[in-house]
Sequence to fold (283 residues):
Amino acid sequence: MDNILEITNLNKDFTDFKLDNINLTLEKGSIMGFIGENGAGKTTTIRLILNALEKSSGQIKVMGRDNVVEELYVKSQIGYVPDEDYFISNSTLLMHSKTLRLFYDNWSEDIFKSYISRWKIPLNKKISEFSKGMKTKAMFALAFAHNPKVLILDEPTAGLDPMARIELLDILREFVSDGEKSVFFSTHITSDLDKIADYITLIHEGRIIESISADKLEEKYIFLSGSVEDLKGLDNKFIGLRKGEIVFEGLILRETANEFFKAMKGIKPNIENLLTYSIWGVK
Fold:
């Protein structure tokens, strides 16, 4: 089995929103960036993977096991770090670790303490006295402690300072380096994904509008900018376009650029370009 996560024809109906026919796979040894606007369906997808929300239809498998039928096994293989912490504020990290390790046969106290030591997180201090960044690091330490096969991260780095974020990205690279584990990483900080993502999946209004390897991003798209006169009325050839009175910039398929804008030199698009210009194009 080469895929750690497989989502097939996943749907979730709400009164005013629908997660619509989501299909994606996450290979072993890889990091997938999951991007989109607020309200696009990222957290809903993650809650469905965790079986914290009942799906309308479809299937989710983790390590080849159905996440509902074999929920306990699946959850034992997942390390989850959300944006908002789940701690009891008047408790301590030590008490949380003692409680959580009862639920995991593969809990490693050595791994847990190595991260606590590395990040200098106090075990006996009340959680209410932790900064947001410290709470985030504590959740990562707890997530790593039970040797998960897949990390599911929902906007976890927003509360970290730049140095801590860089260190965490290095740790995520280490995590997948044996080729057996993977990371599913939802974030608005697309520059983090530029550094580490192997794949990018873009969701908009409950539908996936792109899922691509980072290597093929440059192969498929190009970012053009220049004089408005250079557009020659071909605005509709772009995925997304921003146009002023004098200059423009936009994301376009490379094959389209080669056909209609041969004289223009473009640059490699980054993940933020893919996110913003794809959404502007849909709108």
User: Anything to note?
Assistant: Residues 217-282 form one domain. The chain has a mean pLDDT of 93. The longest helix spans residues 162-176.
